[in-house]
C-alpha cells in the first residue's frame, strides 16, 4: 500500500510517504474484531492531508492562526514520525504516580545523562525535581520541552536547561529522564498509555500512524514491552474505529544510538513481527542521536549491521539524520550506506546540493517535525524545503 500526502503550511511544505507494506494478516487465526480491522486496513487506499509530526497544539511564532489550527485538527491526517515514549500524557503519568507514590523510588536520586560526554559533568538530580512537583502542571512543565511549559524548576542544575525558550536536542531528551523510570517494566501502564495514544490520534483525526519506540528502553524484556504496547494499540484501533472512520496504527522499532548492543535484537524482532497485523512492525530506525554515523564511533558497526540486515530482509529503514548542527554528512551516509528509504528530520541537507540530488534521484521522503525541531532550534526559518529542492528567502 502506498499513500502520498501533501500539506502546505505557510512556506513550509510537509511531504510524507508511508512505507510500502503488505496488508495480509498474520498466519494465526484472527478474531472477528481483528478481521474487521484488517479489512479496514486493506480498503484504505487514498491520499490524505498530512499534519506535522507532533502534537497539533502548536505554539511557535509562525503558527498563531486559530482558524488554521482548527482546520488542521479537522482534516484526515497521516503521521509517520511520532515517538510513543515522547507522546505520553504527563497528566496520566502524574495521576499514576499519585495513586502509587512508592514509584518515586523508581526515579534515580541522581544520574549522569547517557549522552553526556563531559567527564566532569555533575550527575543530574532527577528524584529531587520530581518530588518538588506539587501539581500535574508542575510535572508537565518538567516533562515537556514545549515552550509554553518551560519554567524554572527548584534545583539549580535544571535552570539553564528548563528556562530556555528554545533548547537543544539534549535538552529535549532530558525530559524523558523524568518519566521513563515510571513506565519501565510497567506493562499494564504501557498498555494503557498505548490505548491513550490511539485515542488522542483519533481525536486529532490522524487516521494512519506509524509510531516508533525502543522496546529495550521500556523494559528489561523488550518482547514483553512490545506485547503490552501492541495490545493497547490494537484495543484502541478496534474500539475506536467506526464505520467510515478508520484508525490504523503500525509500529517502527528503534535502536538507540548509545546502545548498539540492542540493534541485533531489534532487527530480529522486526523480522518476526512484520506480518503481525493489525499494528504490525513495518520498519526500523535509530533514535536518540547520530553518533553512530561516525565510522570510528564505538556505536557505528552494530547499527550499520542492523540496517544492512534490514535491507537484506526487505524491512524498510527510516533514520534520524541531519537533525543536529554538526550532522551535515549524515543524510548522505543514511542513504548511501544504511539504505534508508525515509529520513527523520534531515534539515542539514539544505547545505549540500549533491545530497539533495541524491535524495531526489532515490525518491527519499523526509519526515519533518516542525514543533519539536523549532523548539529545539534544529529547524530555522532559512532552512525551507519545497518539492525536494532548496529555496531561499
UniProtKB/TrEMBL annotation:
Cellular component annotations (GO), alphabetically ordered: cytosol; external side of plasma membrane
MF terms in GO: adenosine deaminase activity; metal ion binding
Q: Which GO terms describe its biological process?
A: adenosine catabolic process; hypoxanthine salvage; inosine biosynthetic process; negative regulation of adenosine receptor signaling pathway; purine ribonucleoside salvage
Stated EC number for the protein is 3.5.4.4
Q: What organism is the protein native to?
A: Pseudo-nitzschia australis
Q: Which InterPro entries match?
A: A_deaminase_dom, Ado/ade_deaminase, Metal_Hydrolase
Q: What class of enzyme is it?
A: hydrolase
What cofactor does this protein call for? Zn(2+)
**The name this protein goes by in its record:** adenosine deaminase
Pathway field of the UniProt record reads: Purine metabolism; purine nucleoside salvage
Locate the Adenosine deaminase domain: which residues?
Answer: 155-376
Keywords attached to this entry: Hydrolase, Metal-binding, Purine salvage, Zinc
Question: Which positions make up the signal peptide?
Answer: none
What does the similarity note say? Belongs to the metallo-dependent hydrolases superfamily. Adenosine and AMP deaminases family.
Amino acid at each position: 500500500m502506498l499513500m502520498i500526502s501533501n500539506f502546505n503550511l505557510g512556506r513550509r511544505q510537509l511531504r510524507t510517504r508511508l512505507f510500502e507494506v503488505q496488508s495480509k494478516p498474520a498466519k494465526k487465526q484472527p478474531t472477528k474484531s481483528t478481521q474487521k480491522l484488517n479489512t479496514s486496513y486493506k480498503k484504505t487506499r487514498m491520499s490524505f492531508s498530512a499534519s506535522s509530526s507532533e502534537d497539533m497544539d502548536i505554539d511557535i511564532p509562525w503558527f498563531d492562526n486559530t482558524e488554521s489550527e482548527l482546520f488542521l485538527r479537522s482534516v484526515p491526517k497521516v503521521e509517520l514520525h511520532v515517538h510513543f515514549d515522547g507522546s505520553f500524557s504527563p497528566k496520566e503519568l502524574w495521576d499514576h504516580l499519585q495513586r502509587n507514590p512508592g514509584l518515586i523510588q523508581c526515579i534515580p536520586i541522581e544520574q549522569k545523562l547517557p549522552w553526556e560526554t563531559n567527564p566532569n559533568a555533575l550527575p543530574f538530580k532527577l528524584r529531587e525535581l520530581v518530588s518538588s512537583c506539587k501539581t500535574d502542571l508542575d510535572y508537565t512543565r518538567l516533562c515537556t520541552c514545549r515552550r509554553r511549559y518551560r519554567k524554572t524548576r527548584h534545583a539549580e542544575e535544571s535552570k539553564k536547561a528548563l528556562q530556555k525558550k528554545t533548547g537543544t536536542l539534549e535538552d529535549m531528551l532530558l525530559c524523558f529522564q523524568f518519566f521513563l523510570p515510571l513506565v519501565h517494566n510497567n506493562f499494564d501502564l504501557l498498555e494503557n498509555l498505548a490505548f491513550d495514544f490511539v485515542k488522542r490520534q483519533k481525536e486529532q483525526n490522524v487516521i494512519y500512524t506509524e509510531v516508533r519506540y525502543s522496546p529495550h528502553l521500556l523494559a528489561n524484556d523488550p518482547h514483553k514491552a512490545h506485547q503490552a504496547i501492541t495490545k493497547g494499540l490494537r484495543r484502541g484501533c478496534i474500539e475506536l474505529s467506526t464505520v467510515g472512520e478508520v484508525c490504523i496504527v503500525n509500529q517502527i522499532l528503534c535502536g538507540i544510538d548509545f546502545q548498539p548492543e540492542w540493534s541485533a535484537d531489534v532487527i530480529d524482532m522486526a523480522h518476526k513481527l512484520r506480518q503481525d497485523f493489525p499494528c504490525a512492525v513495518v520498519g526500523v530506525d535509530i533514535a536518540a542521536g547520530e553518533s553512530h554515523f561516525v565510522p570510528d564511533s564505538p556505536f557505528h558497526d552494530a547499527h550499520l549491521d542492523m540496517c544492512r540486515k534490514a535491507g537484506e530482509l526487505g524491512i524498510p529503514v527510516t533514520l534520524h539524520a541531519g537533525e543536529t548542527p554538526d550532522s551535515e554528512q549524515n543524510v548522505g551516509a543514511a542513504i548511501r550506506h544504511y539504505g534508508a528509504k525515509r529520513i527523520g528530520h534531515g534539515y542539514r541537507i539544505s547545505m549540500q546540493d549533491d545530497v539533495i540530488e541524491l535524495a531526489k534521484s532515490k525518491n527519499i521522503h523526509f519526515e519533518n517535525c516542525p514543533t519539536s525541531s523549532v523548539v529545539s532550534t534544529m529547524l530555522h526559518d532559512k532552512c525551507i524545503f519545497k518539492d525536494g529542492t532548496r529555496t531561499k528567502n
